[in-house]
């Protein structure tokens, strides 16, 4: 029964990934170029991107061959290039927050400058979900209060923190690849990361909830894998201090801490954690004590983060802000956005959500419009909406949010702004093409995953003798990618830059899968 359950879970996770790939295969013109959203940029044809993906696979093969003899040199070179890109982005393309993220940063500046008597913007009475990231940035920025003389100083500080967290998360991601799949997989992953300039240069400069939540999620997953990898029995003992495995306890506490911070900053991380614990409970059920202890630690730190947040809110006069229910958006409004205009927000939705002042009237009206829309879509229309949303996230027409984040810091300096904009016009199309190449190459790897997970007639796989551990970790990463993707596709609105919550896990899946295939091919050539 357990074996069948494992096979079903592996099959479902693989099927979801293949369905996403299937949507992407039909997301644009095969021969001619494709215009991105609002015709802002010109994307390549599917055939051209596929050709570039084939070149990236060739570069990966070359990286593996060179790594057999010069593994450390290749690793050092790739890291130097990645760090260089992260630093140079702060100079030549200093992206500024927009919309919600700018409201958050402006509020943080108010809290830092006027503590202990700041004023909270009424924006947070309408969108209290952005209070946690505001509190978190306040904790960080308050340490540098005497250096933050202007709003631009604060934006620069948060951009630097974002870039540092991004690099730390990539280090953790590379450690996962190296620990489970070897140094070749790590180096190929670094190559894939190098081919995602929109992620390295743009996304992580924006001080917002997903920007800061994602690194903590990745680091937490690294420690979680350390808890369960290469462990065949439940050796957790906490009753006898002499027999306590302190290394194991450190991994459990670090995983719980980082995962709880990620959850605190971005509550939709809960879907990734549910996917992770579902896989752990199925494949590592004999280690139920570790799973239970980890759940307790996550809950403990989550409770602690919430209490510290509430204490900070009291100290910063948040509770003087009038929280009027009539200003709140009912949950149904998010579901309306998820389906009304193909998953995108827009003026038509705003006309529905803003029609009534009373919360109860607004909720009833939104429910009515939501049910009407679902009924008009029908089963086929809903499936087509899911397909379109998947293509917004992963399709070849994506611009990865580059038109969304197109403003820069140092707004008062017109000369700098002109230079930033000229550099933006020159770099952005190239950044989009390169990032799409890495994204599509990783998505193509989904075709190969079933061959890696399932035994052939000779009862062998492309994995080594520790195939159970490797397959399980691969499924765990796949569960994170699938669960976050399904959250946006089924329940939430979508925008092109929402891909970044899934992108590191997608790159890891792609790098690992292609490495295993290429290693097997290279070894056969040598025989």
From TrEMBL:
Q: Does the keyword DNA-binding apply?
A: no
What is the species of this protein? Answer: Leuconostoc holzapfelii
Q: Where is the signal peptide?
A: none
Transmembrane helix keyword on record:
yes
- Parts of the chain that traverse the membrane: 43-64, 76-96, 131-148, 155-174, 180-200, 212-229, 257-284, 291-309, 431-453, 473-492, 498-518
Name the UniProt key words of this record, in alphabetical order. Membrane, Transmembrane, Transmembrane helix
What is the top-level taxon of the source organism? Answer: Bacteria
Question: What is this protein identified as?
Answer: Beta-carotene 15,15'-monooxygenase
């Amino acid at each position: 029964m357990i074996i069948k359950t494992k096979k079903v879970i592996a099959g479902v996770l693989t099927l979801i990934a293949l369905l996403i790939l299937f949507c992407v295969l039909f997301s644009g013109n095969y021969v001619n170029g494709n215009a991105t959203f609002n015709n802002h940029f010109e994307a390549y044809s599917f055939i051209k991107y596929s050709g570039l993906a084939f070149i990236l696979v060739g570069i990966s093969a070359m990286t593996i061959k060179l790594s057999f003899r010069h593994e450390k040199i290749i690793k050092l070179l790739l890291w130097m290039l990645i760090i260089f890109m992260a630093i140079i982005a702060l100079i030549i393309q200093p992206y500024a927050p927009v919309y919600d993220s700018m409201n958050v940063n402006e509020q943080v500046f108010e809290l830092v400058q006027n503590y202990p008597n700041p004023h909270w913007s009424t924006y947070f009475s309408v969108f209290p979900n952005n209070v946690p990231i505001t509190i978190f940035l306040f904790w960080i920025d308050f340490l540098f209060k005497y250096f933050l003389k202007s709003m631009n100083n604060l934006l620069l500080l948060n951009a630097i923190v974002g870039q540092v967290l991004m690099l730390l998360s990539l280090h953790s991601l590379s450690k996962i690849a190296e620990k489970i799949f070897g140094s070749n997989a790590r180096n190929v992953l670094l190559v894939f990361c190098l081919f995602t300039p929109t992620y390295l240069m743009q996304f992580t400069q924006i001080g917002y909830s997903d920007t800061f939540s994602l690194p903590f999620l990745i680091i937490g997953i690294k420690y979680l894998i350390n808890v369960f990898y290469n462990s065949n029995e439940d050796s957790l003992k906490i009753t006898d201090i002499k027999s306590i495995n302190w290394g194991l306890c450190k991994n459990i506490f670090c995983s719980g801490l980082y995962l709880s911070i990620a959850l605190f900053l971005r509550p939709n991380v809960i879907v990734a954690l549910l996917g992770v614990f579902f896989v752990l409970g199925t494949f590592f059920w004999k280690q139920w004590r570790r799973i239970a202890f980890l759940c307790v630690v996550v809950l403990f730190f989550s409770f602690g983060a919430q209490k510290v947040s509430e204490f900070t809110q009291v100290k910063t006069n948040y509770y003087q802000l009038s929280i009027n229910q009539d200003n709140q958006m009912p949950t149904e409004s998010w579901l309306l956005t998820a389906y009304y205009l193909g998953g995108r927000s827009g003026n038509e939705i705003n006309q529905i959500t803003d029609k009534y002042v009373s919360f109860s009237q607004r909720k009833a009206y939104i429910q009515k419009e939501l049910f009407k829309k679902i009924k008009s879509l029908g089963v086929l229309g809903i499936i087509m909406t899911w397909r379109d949303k998947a293509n917004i996230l992963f399709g070849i027409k994506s611009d990865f949010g580059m038109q969304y984040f197109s403003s820069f810091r140092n707004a008062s300096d017109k000369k700098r702004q002109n230079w930033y904009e000229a550099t933006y016009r020159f770099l952005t199309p190239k950044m989009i093409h390169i990032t799409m190449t890495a994204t599509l190459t990783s998505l193509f790897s989904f075709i190969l995953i079933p061959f890696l997970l399932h035994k052939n007639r000779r009862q062998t796989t492309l994995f080594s003798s520790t195939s159970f551990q490797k397959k399980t970790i691969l499924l765990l990463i796949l569960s994170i990618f699938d669960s976050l993707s399904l959250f946006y596709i089924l329940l939430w609105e979508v925008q092109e830059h929402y891909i970044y919550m899934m992108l590191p896990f997608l790159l890891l899946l792609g790098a690992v899968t292609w490495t295993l295939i290429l290693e097997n091919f290279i070894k056969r050539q040598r025989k």
